[in-house]
Amino acid sequence: xxxxxxxxxxxxxxxxxxxxxxxxxxxxxxxxxxxxxxxxxxxxxxxxxxxxxxxxxxxxxxxxxxxxxxxxxxxxxxxxxxxxxxxxxxxxxxxxxxxxxxxxxxxxxxxxxxxxxxxxxxxxxxxxxxxxxxxxxxxxxxxxxxxxxxxxxxxxxxxxxxxxxxxxxxxxxxxxxxxxxxxxxxxxxxxxxxxxxxxxxxxxxxxxxxxxxxxxxxxxxxxxxxxxxxxxxxxxxxxxxxxxxxxxxxxxxxxxxxxxxxxxxxxxxxxxxxxxxxxxxxxxxxxxxxxxxxxxxxxxxxxxxxxxxxxxxxxxxxxxxxxx
Length: 324
Fold this sequence. Notes:
The chain is built from 7 helices and 15 strands. The protein has helices at about 95-100, 105-110, 125-130, 140-155, 170-175, 180-195, 315-324, and strands at about 1-15, 20-25, 35-45, 50-55, 60-65, 70-80, 160, 180, 200-205, 225-230, 235-240, 245, 250-255, 265-270, 275-285. A 5-stranded antiparallel β-sheet has the order 12-11-10-9-13, covered by helices on one side. Strands 3-6-1-15 form a 4-stranded antiparallel β-sheet, with no helix packed on it. Strand 10 (about 225-230) and strand 11 (about 235-240) form a beta hairpin. Helix 3 packs across helix 5 (about 170-175). It is globular.
């Protein structure tokens, strides 16, 4: 499936700020099932752009706007070709639980086994687990248990925007009985890790065709889901918001322990001003794609006299390949 993704993030300040520094996790990843054909990143006002690879292998861009400004617009555009996911078995043998306890797995996946940030066990989560008898799901093999957990979260929580914020703890969604994809992911992460399943947060996009329906996610927003590590299958993606495993409609941007590791944008500014954030996302199927732009060297600034800064899809390519 060939998908074109447009993502606009705009910060407005009620009075000019002196300087702003921003980090961005917006470049889709390259993998066996996901080919990044092109990627462009534009900033307004003009600024130098730098790039690096973070501890989890994600492409990160950062910039510094050193002059006074009352607006900062960040536009990214990508074309990605995705492949259907490989068919999963109906179940795994119960010995998979023992394989998950091995010192090798626990050492290799240490970061994704510990409670962290938003993905932690709380009294509200314990109440939710008891009310829906979720711990009984663990009596099945790990793959079946995770599928059933995905179903339980889909059935037990409603999807509604505006109930929680980006920095909301899971208790707010649990007490309201509804939330957005980020909340679903954090709750699932906390439960999986409590079961001894390595699980990681995935940020990205989801292509939803309104004519087909079947998805609860906001089509004009970023998306989030969970990947669970099963020794026999490696990483398997689960989307609890939509009660499905991930496939060619899901576009991975970054992975981390929770949302705070991989927000689409994060920054600070100098000045005494109130800020307002606007975000617009478009994911659509396309039949053609532009030629891949010229490669850039990782970590070097992009300098141009234009007010628009462009980065190629292959920025960071060499470092990313070294980490695979």
